[in-house]
Structure formats: structure tokens, C-alpha cells
Amino acid sequence: MKYQLLPNPEEVFSENVEKHFQVLFPLLTIELNDIDSTLSGSVHFILPFEPNDTVGLETKKYHTYYSRCNWLAYKVQNDKCVLEPSFSFLQFNYIKSHPDFKNHFGGVDSYLDNLSNDLNNELIKIKSNYSKIRNHYSSQTEICNKFLKYFEQYTEPFNDIDSTFPTQASPIDNLDYPITQDGRPFKYIGQLDVTDFTFYDENKKRISLNADFNIVLYYDPVEQVVLNTFSY
């Protein structure tokens, strides 16, 4: 399988690269043809910065059909992508542009009073760890294949969608697949375990992205939409 581990953001985002990379961290690029011979091009597994809540939980104002609570979509353009919803869909950006966020966010006063500073501090930490992880794995190419284990061992489609997204049962495997806005089933591509991006430095300090979940990726080749959900 052809893949690029921890690709440069310029290779992943087709526009507003710095704005995307502020809160979206590329983890893995794969060739679609390696998964499904009827598909072509590349897609990217991307970690959104949403450390305190489920993605989209508090930002309903910016939900779309595709991007909603625990779902996040990207539009693919020439093998690169752009965020499908507004950047304010992500909590970090929402708080910066909505000073009244405490009026409609859930949580006790002490949590909300500190939320902006807490997110800033966490983002600094995650950016630092992401850089360390990139440097670490760039010199450890012999172990990079572990990041493909979900494509090799867990090829069956994800089946824990419940009622969080409109679905359609496949007549082939009787599993539910998310459907596009006009009713076509997405193609399941695979999962990536974010906890794999962890190592211990020379001081035996654990370096991670503080994300204990799998990124589950679907793709629609007609509209060229990547659809992610997150399995905890």
C-alpha cells in the first residue's frame, strides 16, 4: 500500500493552509485505489483539535448536513482537501469569534471561565507534541507499517453509527452506511487509531496527541466528500 505518514500540510490542504493547520493535524495519506479498485486519488486522515468535547457538540450554529456532532467532513480538490463546514464549527475557533459563548455552552462556571485559556494551552502542547512525533517517526521508518493495521486487519466497515447520521443498510453485508444528502451510500475506507501516534522520549516522557479514539473515514467519489466520525 502506498501511503504518506504525517504529511506536510501543504500536501493536504488546498487553500488557507495555515488556517487549516492551526486546528487540523494531518496524520496519514493513502491512495484510494489501494482500498477500492474503482476509486482513484488520495485521501487524508486528519486529527481535529477538539480536546474537551465531542467534535461539533457545542457548535450547532455551524452544523451542516455532513458536519454535525461527532461527524466532520472535507471537500476533496485535486487530492487535497478543505474543511466542509465553517472554521467556527471547531470549538477553538468558535470561542475566538463568539465572546458570548458562555451563554450557550454547557458546563459549570469554573470550566467555562477557564475554557479559552485551557484550549490555548492545550493547543500549544499538541502542536509541540505533533512536531516531536513527526521528527520521531521520520527517523523510524521501519516501524511505520503499524499505522496501516486497521486497513490490513479490520477491513469490515464500521458499524456503530446508531442514529447519529442518516444511513442506509447495504444489501451486500446488511451493515449501515452513512448516506449523502441525495441518498447515496458512502464508501467505507478504513480506520486509524490515533493512540498509535505515541512514543516515549529519552526522558521516558510520554509524547502523544491526547486523542483516545479511532478516526473512521468514508468517501463519496461523486461529490468528492471525505466524511469522518470518531470511535471512542
Describe this structure in words.
β9 and β10 form a beta hairpin. The chain starts with a strand and ends with a strand. The strands form four sheets. It has a five-stranded antiparallel beta sheet with strand order 5-4-12-11-8. It is α+β, with helices and mostly antiparallel strands and 232 residues long. 21% of the residues lie in helices and 26% in strands. It has helices at 17-23, 91-97, 109-138, 149-153; strands spanning 3-5, 24-31, 42-48, 71-77, 80-83, 167-169, 176-178, 187-193, 199-200, 206-207, 214-220, 225-231.
Question: Which descriptors would you attach to this protein?
Answer:
5-stranded antiparallel β-sheet, 4 helices, 26% strand, alpha+beta, globular
Task: Give a topology summary.
Blueprint: E1 3-5, H1 17-23, E2 24-31, E3 42-48, E4 71-77, E5 80-83, H2 91-97, H3 109-138, H4 149-153, E6 167-169, E7 176-178, E8 187-193, E9 199-200, E10 206-207, E11 214-220, E12 225-231
Antiparallel strand pairs: 1-2, 2-3, 4-5, 4-12, 6-7, 8-11, 9-10, 11-12
Give the low-confidence spans. none
Structural class: alpha+beta
Total number of beta strands: 12
CA-to-CA gap between the ends? Answer: 26 Å
Strand residue percentage: 25-35%
Helix percent band: 10-25%
Total of domains: 1
Compact summary:
The protein has 232 residues and is of the alpha+beta class.
